[in-house]
What we know:
By secondary structure, this protein is of the alpha/beta class. About 35% of the residues lie in helices and about 15% in strands. The chain is globular.
Amino acid sequence: MKILLINPPNSGRSIPEEEYGIDSLKPIFRGEPLALEVLAGNLRDHEVLILDLKVEPDGLAATLAAFGPDLVGITGMTCEANAMVALARQVKESCPAWVVVGGIHASNDPDFFHLPAIDYIVIGLGKASFRQLIMALAEGEEGGAIPGICQVGAGKRAHYSPRPFSMADLVDDVPPAYELVQRYRDHYVLTSLQLDMGFVVTAFGCPFRCHFCCIKGLTNGRYLSHSIDTVLRDISLLPDIPVIRLLDANTFANVEHATRLGAALKEADLQKQFLADVRSDTVVKHPELMVAWREAGLRAVIVGFEEIDDSSLSAMNKASSVAVNSEAIRILHDIGITIIGDFIISPSYKQSDFDRLERYICDHQVDLPMITVLTPLPGTALFADMQADITIHNLDYYTLTNAVTPTRLAEKDFYQRYAALLKMSHSGARL
C-alpha cells in the first residue's frame, strides 16, 4: 500500500498580531514530525512518504499527483485541527485515498473529526493500531473493530473501543523512520544556537494530572517507558546531530528507569547533549539523578513551574509549591544545568500579577522563560471547568499565546504587557 503521512503547515493564528500588530507573540512550530516517523517505522513493508508542510507549505497538490497514495494519514495539535480538516478535504477532492487522522486533538476530541472527508480516527498512540488498521484495509476489511480506531460514519458520533495501552503499543523493536525526513533535516534547527536538533522519545504519557494538561489522551493516563536499548538505538540513528530533544512529557517520571537510562547514556558516550522535561519535585527529591544526567550530557531541562503562588498551583492540581520550585532552581543552578522554565499567565492577570512574575523570573535567574497563556484545551479538566467562559471557539487560536476567555485587563493592555514580559525575559536568555 502507498501511504502518505502529512505534518500540517504552521496554521495557528494570533490575536495580538491581527488586532494590535504585536507579531512577537505569534508562535512558529518547527521540528521533525517524530509522531509520523514513529508510525512510518512500523510500516516498512509498505511504500511510505512523509510530507512536512511546515517546511514546504505548498507541497500537497504536487505530492498527491506524483505519489498517488492509497491512504493519507494526518496528525496535528489542537491549533492545527482546522488545518487537518482542510487537508483531508483537499485529499478527498484530489484522489480516492482513505483519510485517517490522529494526534493529540483527535485523541482528546474525536467528535471534532467526525466529518465526510475523514474515514478513520486514531485515538491515542497509533504505532500498533495504525498498522493494524492498514493491514485490515489491505485485506479488504473495515477497521472499526480495532481498539483505539474510530470508523467515521455519517450522522453518528465518534464511537470506538478504548485501547488498553500497554508496552506492546510501543513496538520497541521497530525504530522510527528518520530517513524519511532526510530532505528536510537542514530545517530542524535549534534557532537560538543554530544547532541541528533531533527528536527521540523515551516515554509516553504522564502519571500526574495537572488540570490544564492534555497528555492523558495519548495513553489513557498510563506512563509507558521505552527500553534502555531502544532509546540508545534511536539516538544512534541520528549520528550527525549534536543536540537531542527527548520529546517526553516527563522523562524522569519513573526514577528507577531514568537512573538506569542516565547510566547507560554515560557509558555509551554518544557525544550528545540532551534537553529533557523534569518536574521540580523530582529535582528536589532526587538531585543525584540530575547530577548523573549532567555527566551523561544533559544540557538543559524544561521545568513546568507554571505559577508563582501556591493557591494558583493548587488550582492547577500541580502537586507542587513555590518553595519546591525555588529549591529546584537552586539545585539545577548548582549542578550547571540550564533551566527552561514554563510559566502560565492567566487571562485574569492584573498589572500587579505581571509585575510579580517579572520579579520572580529575574530574582530566580531562570535562563530561558517560556510564557504561555492559560488555555482550556478540549479534553482537559480545565476545559470542562471553563467551558462556559470561553468566548473564542476557533481552534486556530488555541496556540497557548492567545486568551480564549475574557481578559481582566483591556485586551490590548494584556497583550502589550505579555509581549513586554517575553522581551524582558528573553533579553539575556541563553542555553
